[in-house]
Design a protein that fits this description.
With 445 residues, this protein is of the alpha+beta class. Helices cover 34% and strands 25% of the residues. The chain folds into two domains: 97-183, Pdz3 Domain, CATH 2.30.42.10; 187-355 and 362-443, 2-enoyl-CoA Hydratase, Chain A, domain 1 (Alpha-Beta Complex). It contains twelve helices and 21 strands. Strand 3 (103-108) and strand 4 (111-117) form a beta hairpin. Helix 7 runs parallel beside helix 8 (240-250) and helix 8 runs parallel beside helix 9. The longest helix has 27 residues, at 2-28.
Length: 445
């Protein structure tokens, strides 16, 4: 009897709960979810949360959660809510600059260690050296800090000071640094890997990438470069306009670069080259991998479709959309996808969600469902998700190797040029470029 009474009481409770749920459902069911009834639905749900949720949630947080939910349900990872702090961080990324001391730190053995100081920055002027352990910052021990905590402690408003206690090759010492605006060069590394073969790594597409790239390539040409390895591996992209400007440097006037298509007139545009190529006789091989994305893919796609460069490496990330950032009154913003972009041959490189019967990790170059297109000279290129290289080299296991090489290039470690020559993709590109006397020679095996 006791057991039967318990079951009956449980059933009664569930029935009350279900009845309440039904009443709420009837109360908030909108007749026209696109109009005033939709607004009443949202307000009714929020009122129930205010009154009945197990924890109290203030109104500001409720509205923020509603915003996050709306953007999240768009099922678009590139549309998001940017808090004021995230908005500032995005703006720093776009300008590739930040206020700080110009030291790169990584936690090793539980302590932040200086791994690089940027030339001409407060860190270099104060005598910080690679290998210095950062023991104390403004009186606080750094033992147990994360990379993010160490970076945050070194950054701050321009003109403010930070007091450091360090121990390293020059011994233990105390230094006071005055923070300044630090600009991070978009060119991660440039050199001649052979007497007349240049190597240039681009790490991002910020607002000065095209200017910095032109300066670097002009310098390499002046030193004797007659061909170029353009390394876009691991480049996450950035500004669409910079992708267009970089592609413009390599292509001739009138060449189509990229097309954008969206719902508004401003988002529908065909970008064409407006100037004569800066290096029309320079054969180019572009290196890509699965982390090459966005504006970096615009460059790779434009050069591939126009028969201007051979693409070597692994299939790229596949971000074929563009976003606008729209400011809000509270200092936050939303990043909203407002267009899709297409290569000159009309390829969308946005990675589709794989169907249930498609092997998600099957090699893209072997995917027979991808559309096949031909360039002006008749070369075959493939559409679908990501830019499929003309020559595939390596596999996803090579990503760790790519990252290690990128770190060596950034730090200019001893023997970094030898490390470049030992990289399989760079070595293959050099072999291709040695025989090239004109840009399209790179397409001949």
């Amino acid at each position: 009897m006791s057991r039967l009474r318990s079951i009956a009481l449980t059933g009664l409770a569930l029935g009350v709960a279900w009845a309440a749920t039904g009443a709420l459902r009837d109360a908030v069911r909108p007749r026209d979810p696109s109009g005033p009834d939709g607004a009443r639905l949202l307000e009714a749900v929020m009122e129930r949360v205010r009154a009945n949720y197990v924890d109290s949630v203030d109104d500001a947080r409720l509205w923020e959660l509603a915003t996050l939910g709306l953007l999240g349900e768009l099922d678009d990872p590139n549309s998001s809510y940017l808090t004021p702090a995230r908005r500032v961080a995005l703006e720093r990324t776009i300008t590739n600059s930040y206020p700080g001391v110009g030291a790169q730190v990584e936690v090793m053995g539980g302590v932040p260690v200086i791994v690089q100081t940027r030339p001409g920055t407060p860190a270099e002027r104060a005598g910080l050296e690679e290998g210095d352990e950062l023991l104390v910052v403004d009186g606080r021990s750094t033992r147990g800090w994360s990379d993010a905590e160490a970076r945050a402690a070194l950054r701050g408003p321009r003109g403010t000071s930070v007091r450091l206690e360090v121990d390293g090759p020059a011994g233990r010492r105390t230094l006071t640094l005055v923070r300044d605006q630090i600009h991070v060069n978009a060119i991660a590394g440039e050199t001649l890997v052979e007497a007349d073969v240049a190597y240039l790594a681009v790490s991002t597409f910020s607002d000065s990438t095209a200017v910095e790239l032109r300066r670097a390539v002009d310098s390499l040409v002046a030193r004797g470069a007659r061909s170029l390895v353009l390394d876009l591996r691991g480049n996450p992209g950035g500004l669409l306009a910079q992708g267009v400007e970089v592609a413009d440097l390599f292509l001739g006037a009138g060449a189509q670069l990229v097309t954008t298509a969206g719902r508004t007139a401003a988002s529908r545009r065909v970008y064409t080259d407006s100037t004569t190529s800066a290096w029309s006789a320079l054969p180019v091989v572009v290196l890509v991998n699965e982390l090459t994305a966005s504006a970096a893919e615009i460059v790779a796609g434009a050069l591939q479709d126009n028969d201007r460069a051979l693409i070597l490496g692994r299939v790229t990330y596949g971000k074929g959309s563009a976003q606008g950032v729209y400011g809000l009154d509270n200092g936050a913003a939303i990043s909203l996808t407002n267009a899709r972009w297409y290569t000159p041959l009309g390829r969308s490189i946005e990675h589709p969600v794989p169907a249930d019967d498609v092997q998600a990790d099957a090699p893209a170059e072997a995917d027979t469902t991808r559309p096949v297109l031909r360039t002006p000279t008749g070369r075959v290129v493939k559409g679908g998700g990501g830019i499929v290289p003309d020559q595939v080299i390596g596999d996803t296991a090579g990503l760790a190797t790519d990252r290690r090489l990128a770190a060596v290039v950034r730090r200019r470690d001893d023997g970094w040029q030898g490390a470049l020559r030992g990289d399989a993709a760079v070595a293959r590109a050099v072999v291709i470029l040695r025989r090239a006397r004109a840009p399209r020679d790179v397409f001949v095996d």
